[in-house]
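Support request, please re-run this one:
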Amino acid sequence: MLSGIDIKKLADAFMFLWLFVLMFQMGISVSIKDMLVSTRNHILLAKSLAANFIIVPFATLVLLLIFKPSAGISVGFLTLTVFAGAPFGPPVSSIAKGDMPFSIGLMLILTLISTIIAPFLLVFLAGFLPGTAAFNISKSEILKVVITSQVIPIAAGLALRHFALKTAVKILDPVKKLSSILTAGSFAVIFLLDYKMLFIFELKAFSGMLLLFIISICSGYFLGGSGKQVKRSLAILTTIRNAAAALVIINASFPGTPAFASALTYSVFSVLGSLVFAYAAGRQKI
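Re-run finished. Output below.
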C-alpha cells in the first residue's frame, strides 16, 4: 500500500506529464506560419499583450488589495493570472465564431512569452501583497519548472511539425487523446487529494472573481479592434488563463496551501463564464 508521500509524488508526476503532453500537443498543432499570423498587425499584437500581461495581472493585484484574502489565496490568483495562453482558448473561440488563425497563433505566442515573463511578473506583483514573503517565491525554481514542462515540449512539437510534418500530423490524434485522458485524470487526482480546499471560499470571494472576469473579458473585447471575430477571440484568450501551467507551478512551489484551490476555482469560474460568452457571441448576440 502506497504511503501519503508516495501518492503525493505520484500526483505531482501525473500533473507534470499532463502539462508536458498538453504543451507538446500545442507545438505539433500549430505551425510557425500559423503563429506569425498573429504578429502581422503590430498594433493588435501590442494590445493583446497589454491585455494579458498588464491589465489582467494588475487588475488581479488591485482586487486582492481591496478584498484582502489570505496570502495563500492571493498567491494562487496571481500565479494563475500571470500565465496566459490557455490551450482551451481556441476551442472556446470557435464556439464564439471567432478568428481561428488569430486565436491559435496568439495562444502559442502568449504561452511562449509567459514562460519568460510570468516568473518575474509573479515575484514583482507578490511583493505588493502582505504575507506573501513567507512563500519564498523563487524565480529560478519557477523558471526551472517552466523550461522543463513548457519550453522544451513546445519547442520539440514545433520542430517536429516544421521538419517532419507527416509524422506530426500522424501522431496528433493519439497525442490529443492522451492529453484528454491526462486532463481528466489530473482533475480527478486534484479532487481526490484537495477536495476540502475547494470549499474554503465565501460569497465575497466569488464577487471578486466576477469582477476579475468582467475586467478580463471587457479588456480583451474592447482592445480587439473593429472586427467582431477578433474581438471575441481576444476576449476569450484574455479571460481563460493557462491553468495547467499555473497548477503545476503551484504544486511544485507552494504545495499544501490554499494557492492551489484559488487558482483552480477561478480557472473553472473563468472557463464557464467564457463558455456563456462564447455561446452568446456565436448566436450573434455580442
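The chain has one domain: 4-282. Residues 1-5 have pLDDT under 50 and may be disordered.
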